[in-house]
Records
---
Amino acid sequence: MKIFLDTANLESIKKFNDMGLVDGITTNPTLLSKEKGDPEEIMGEIVRTVKGPISLEVISTDFEGMMAEGRRLSKYGKNVVVKIPMTAEGLKAVSALKLEQIRTNVTLIFSANQALLAAKAGASYVSPFIGRLDDIGEIGMDIVRDIVTIFKNYDFDCEVLVASVRHPLHVIDAAKLGAHVVTLPPDVLAKMIAHPLTDIGLARFLDDWKKVSSSSSAPRLTVPR
Ligand code: G3P
């Protein structure tokens, strides 16, 4: 399963990218509004920092506006995927952008039917927002299960990108269902790395080592001749 980071924060992107964990990035207007600095420059820097797909979202809601923005955003780099909202105008833009070899990620998906239509229109990714469904008392992961099944049944050339992820259990559930991608806020990825037993175990190893090696903090290796 691919892991994308759902952020426009360059510090977090660089930190996790250096660990080899980041297959791509998703941004949106809300995430960009949280960062200091010119959004255009931030988007350019993200595209240069991470080699994988970078979703940059349009602000327009009409077909012509989305086309113009999609073409402009795609110029940031070959790895750009244009993020388009799940609307009738959006589907039209997805279909037209595909003809221009511009990849799209259809966002704000809240049902399997929406995902099916986005895939038929030619999207490269669909983004079901599972946390927001959980928020209103529905089970977000249920639509991921349905979408994965539908895409497999018809061999759609479209990846299921699980978005609005709130905690590490969402990641396990998405992985068990065979979703292609999860996009994670940096704090969720940090939580996946940490485990209290790892910390306790490491502290014990270091304490025990101190008992046998008071003069050195690092193991002294004897190389066999
Ligand atoms: O990728 C979509 C994501 O940014 C939305 O997350 O937590 O605002 O529902 P959230």
---
Amino acid sequence: MGQTIGVIGLGVMGSNIALNMARNEEKVAVYNYTRDLTDQLVQKAENEQIYPYYDIQSFVQSLETPRKIFLMVTAGEVVDSVIGSVVPFLEKGDIIMDGGNSHYEDTSRRYDDLKSKGIDYLGIGISGGEIGALKGPSIMPGGDMEVYEKVAPILTKIAAKVENDPCCVYIGPKGAGHFTKMVHNGIEYADMQLIAEAYTFLRERLNLPIKEIANIFETWNQGELKSYLIEITVHILRKIDVETGLPLIDVILDKVGQKGTGKWTSIQAINNGIPLSIITESLFARYLSTLKNERINAERILTGPEVDRQDLEKDLWIEYMRQALYLGKVCVYAQGFAQYKTTSELYDWDLPLKDIALIFRGGCIIRAEFLNVISEAYQNQPKLVNLLVAPYFAEKFETYQLGLRKVVSQGINVGMPLPCLSASLTYYDSYRTGTSNANLLQAQRDYFGAHTYERNDRVGIFHTEWQ
Ligand code: 6PG
């Protein structure tokens, strides 16, 4: 009997996935392009069912058939080159799975290529960082349903569990799993930015000390805002830098990196006419952050508003901020899930929105209490067009919108940038505007370019000689 699964790519994520599989009674063959990472894993996994191989051929031949090979390598060309090195040793019906952050279009292309060779391919979105990979990530598999079923026993075993339900569900054909992971990351960017804006407001407008802000986030994390990202923010705010004795956050340079998944999310939305303003603002906030030198220079030249920064009533404004953050999150998820819906229709993927919300409840970076409510919203109305109009959230807006409006206008008045909170409010107000000023834009287009327009009182295409 051979090994039951093979993992290629033994960086932090790959070794942790391999260990997770071994701890769930799989016999795991492992291979890495360089020997050092394989040896490190073997040392660490002395008593686990981890079997190292140092050349691709013996790695592949060690696997029982149909062979199941899990790639945990850097997204991009490396995936193609690893596939190219494995395929010569495979037989019809063997399965390759890509667990990295691959672009979903690459996944669809690889699926087609391998299909023509009789090899099955699954693009598997995995979220949860290194701890998730080891202890249970959220897993988003895309490809053929019958192929998924062959590996489902392994994937569901290694996935995070919420109330005993595995955070792993079949997502849809071809690149649907990686698409789902991509938008997950877009939501992650915006969720992180919203939390950062709440932190800035509490610190700079309410003048609260970091310790108190950590306590506020901790309290919020016991209610409807409960989420992994708020939880880690509490830990981050309490961390002291050993060298300086200062809060570590105060010595971290304010320039944000990114690896591309948030950018892909915005590009896909723009290409397909999907309003994704909040996620895109969070991406632009990262880009703006990198202009550190320009910002320092501009701070010396450009002035803010002349305002009387009166003290705000602390408890009242903390509650406004909580409400604003909650509604901001709702708007981000509304945009992300609208992107799922529109794209699902575009590609005929039939994405299971209710289940996507359920598997996001555990393991992944955006795991949050209110995903239960999102899932219920889709369960109650499978054809729901947008989360904003789900009765539960419409009611939340009715009660909390004052908080969001107060915070955003306060930011505007004192010159404090709150890009994602403002974009959330703009999205909410635009979405609920039945009759907008788009008629003027159409008239302008027709005026200068004879682009024509439709009328609201009769059917047809019209043009006016404006002059
Ligand atoms: C996850 C994370 C993971 C990774 C992101 C970070 O779900 O486990 O999203 O995929 O941390 O790639 O992305 P940036 O480097 O672009 O912030």
